[in-house]
Amino acid sequence: MIKTRSLLTFILVLATVSAAPTVAPLDFDKSEYAARRQKLMAQIPDGLAIIQGSLAGPLNNEFIQNNDFIYLCGVKLPRAVLLVDGIHKESILFYTISERYLRSEGVSLDLLRDSKAATGVDKYYPAEEFTKVLTGLAAQAKVIYTPFTPEGPPQEVATNSDWDGRPTRERQFAKMLQ
């Protein structure tokens, strides 16, 4: 009876630990990402860099973030946008995500409670504030940098074809910035 109860307790503890949300949504310490953003800021002292995160859409039930986005901030949330401000030397993360989504993906709710502490990014705004914030910052910037080629998972780069005829998501975004 003791062995059965011990085994059952062990299985319950193991299930609880593996189902618990991760402590942070990052693969590396947030200071590593901050150092990467600082290097970028040093290269764009008169401008802004805007990097879009990947769209929602699982690939084999796993969300895959845009390469540049994950390199600079490590956040694995769909439709997020990172703005790196070389003028004011700060970074801003735009995303709108629900508590329900975070729980279902096993991501810590710290993202909602204290974004800066969870990610190391200086400021956070809901995605709906992107245009307003960008308009204010763009008036001070000489240059706005953004990728022109897809860096996302395969389902997002499908429009990067001569036969497709549509602009890539990145080219469409650059056109909207103009």
Characterize the overall form.
globular
CATH architecture, by name, is 3-Layer(aba) Sandwich
Helix count from the secondary structure assignment: 8
- Helices and strands, in order, run as HHEHEEHHHEHEH
Calculate the mean pLDDT score and round it: 76
Characterize the structure shown:
With 178 residues, the protein is an alpha/beta fold. It has one domain: 3-Layer(aba) Sandwich (Creatine Amidinohydrolase, Chain A, domain 1). It contains 8 helices and 5 strands, in the order ααβαββαααβαβα. The protein has a 5-stranded mixed beta sheet with strand order 4-3-2-1-5, sandwiched between helices.
Helix-strand blueprint:
Elements: H1 2-19, H2 30-43, E1 47-52, H3 67-73, E2 81-85, E3 90-94, H4 99-105, H5 110-113, H6 115-119, E4 123-125, H7 130-138, E5 143-145, H8 169-177
Parallel strand pairs: 1-5, 3-4
Antiparallel strand pairs: 1-2, 2-3
Please supply descriptive tags for the structure shown above.
alpha/beta; five-stranded mixed β-sheet; disordered N terminus; globular; single chain; 178 residues; 5 strands; Creatine Amidinohydrolase, Chain A, domain 1
Describe the structure concisely.
The chain is an alpha/beta fold and 178 residues long. The protein has eight helices and five strands, in the order H-H-E-H-E-E-H-H-H-E-H-E-H. Helix content is 41%, strand content 12%.
